[in-house]
Write a structure and sequence with these properties.
This protein is mainly α. The chain is built from 29 helices and no strands. α7 (95-120) runs antiparallel to α8, α7 crosses α9 (141-152) and α25 (429-441) packs parallel to α27 (464-476). The longest helix has 26 residues, at 95-120. The relative contact order is 0.11. One of its GO terms (molecular function) is mRNA binding. This is Pentatricopeptide repeat-containing protein. Belongs to the PPR family. P subfamily. It comes from Heracleum sosnowskyi.
């Protein structure tokens, strides 16, 4: 590769970050390193920026079991209860127990569907609470969860007021049933319903009710509330309130400050991260590896690279060794800085100190390099990752496909797209969006429409981003009839209102 041959011209600049890592390693004990792999999920209902969400890897890479096992409540529920359609490992469970578990979840789903049908009839001449009583159903946490999720996933701009009332009516009814009391998870779902319905005062009342009942306010509580704050002034007041809450807990963290710092990272409140860290020091709490990782991401996003480097050195002086996430941050910085030789040295250094590079590390690096326009380096590391025992997943393929689409190299993108399917990786909504955009950019509108059909035939439902991409390019090309046809199909499938409302909710956060 040319960049390897010519790399020595700028070798001093390229070695800047690995040099910091060496200093940290020399001053830190090598006792234990985190090797857990992070899972990046691409939610098909989300609305991302122009070419998908790969820019947000630094934020998402903290979404790992060792840090936030309590945050993804839906995942926890699936794994603990074995929801139908979920791949779970049940260890030593016998087949009869598995069948009972599956039967329980199926019964809860069936009862939830009946309850939703009754709630939808609520109005003059029909008492939904009486209808729920007549069901004579055993109210369980799973049953309540399915009903609230059914309401939450169907909220749109037109029905938000009605659905907020419907959700709260069910919430109060179920909370009064014998031998049942709402969990933190139930409160969070109801809070989210209020948040998406823009009933913010009602949402805050639920927070107060949780505190009065002695239920812990967790990072999930914080995330729901902070996402509705809007302006930074209100966000700071919210943070101050949570700092003072004695009931604010989050089990993987040493103290609530890390939970708050992580939560602020997920909603991109980088300046608030700096402020919370200062409050943390004032109250006598020492930072740990996670604290430094979050701070470094915030400093980098704010363009404060000198402070980024100082934090890395301070981390070593305080006896903390970089973990897998720290190295992922460094690879992101090197990738976006177009420093492939330094990144290669860092990957080798990781191997030397016992930290195995994962598909996430390579994906992060390839994403950064593609944004820097170094596609030769992207190809090199995409091939090189197999030597480290890493196989590219759907996210990695999506990143490299997107990189070549952005560069206008549609043929190469198509080659990677075909390769991923041959190797058993199913394209997701972001992969398809990139391909549809690339085909439209090349004026291949017929192929783009066929790509949309292929997407649906594989069970991948188009989201607002995909439809908007196709319609926008068709309109800009003067193909109004084709654009209107796409909109007609979209409306026929009943997705138009739902998708627009989801787009608005995303923009609010």
């Amino acid at each position: 590769m040319n960049w390897i041959c010519n790399g020595f011209v700028s070798i001093l600049a390229m070695y800047c970050v690995p040099l910091f890592v060496r200093r940290v390693m020399q001053s830190s004990s090598f006792c234990r390193f985190s090797r857990s792999l992070c899972n990046i999920s691409r939610n098909g209902d989300g609305v991302e920026k122009e070419f998908g969400s790969s820019e947000e890897f630094l934020d998402v890479n903290f979404n790992c079991s060792e840090f936030i096992s309590g945050l993804d409540e839906e995942r926890d529920t699936r794994e603990s209860l074995g929801s139908a359609g979920t791949s779970c490992s049940y260890g030593d469970y016998s087949q009869p127990k598995f069948s009972m578990r599956r039967s329980f979840t199926e019964k809860a789903r069936s009862d939830a569907d009946r309850a939703l049908g009754i709630l939808n009839q609520d109005g003059p001449g029909f008492d939904a609470k009486a209808g729920l009583d007549d069901m004579e159903v055993t109210v369980s946490g799973l049953f309540v969860r399915y009903v609230l999720l059914g309401i939450l996933t169907n909220i749109n701009y037109a029905n938000k007021i009605r659905y907020a009332k419907m959700g709260y009516k069910f919430f109060t009814w179920s909370g009064k049933q014998e031998n049942f009391s709402h969990t933190v998870n139930s409160y969070h779902l109801m809070m989210k319903i209020f948040a998406d319905s823009e009933e913010y005062k009602a949402m805050w009342r639920l927070v107060d009710e949780m505190i009065e009942k002695g239920l812990p306010t967790t990072a999930r509580t914080f995330n729901i509330v902070i996402c509705t704050c809007g302006q930074a002034g209100l966000a700071r007041k919210t943070v101050e309130r949570f700092i003072k809450l004695k009931s604010f807990s989050y089990r993987p963290f040493k103290h609530s400050f890390n939970a708050i710092l992580y939560s602020l990272l997920t909603v991109k409140q980088y300046k608030l991260i700096e402020w919370v860290y200062q409050q943390m020091l004032v109250e006598g709490h020492d930072p740990d590896t996670l604290t430094y990782n979050v701070l470094m991401v915030a400093k980098y996003r704010l363009g404060k690279l000198d402070q980024f480097h100082r934090l890395l050195e301070e981390m070593g002086r305080n006896g903390f060794s970089p973990d897998s996430h720290t190295f992922n941050i460094l690879l992101h910085v090197l990738g976006k800085g177009d420093k492939p030789l330094a990144a290669l040295n860092l990957l080798n250094h990781m191997k030397e100190v016992g930290i195995e590079a994962s598909v996430l590390h390579f994906t992060t690096l390839i994403d950064g390099l593609s944004r820097a326009g170094n596609l030769d380096a992207c190809k090199y590391f995409f091939t090189e990752m197999t030597k480290y025992g890493c196989l590219p997943d759907v996210v990695c393929y999506t990143v490299i496909v997107t990189g070549f689409i952005v560069a206008g190299e549609l043929e190469t993108a198509q080659e990677y797209f075909t390769e991923m399917i041959v190797k058993g990786q199913v394209p997701n909504v972001f992969t398809y969006n990139s391909m549809i955009r690339g085909l439209c950019m090349a004026g291949k509108f017929k192929e783009a429409c066929l790509m949309l059909e292929d997407m649906e035939s594989r069970g991948c439902n188009p989201n607002f981003l995909v439809y908007n991409t196709l319609v926008s390019y068709l309109r800009n090309a003067g193909k109004m009839s084709e654009a209107n046809e796409v909109i007609r199909v979209m409306v026929e499938k009943g997705r138009y209102i739902d998708l627009v409302s989801k787009f608005k909710r995303y923009r609010r956060c």
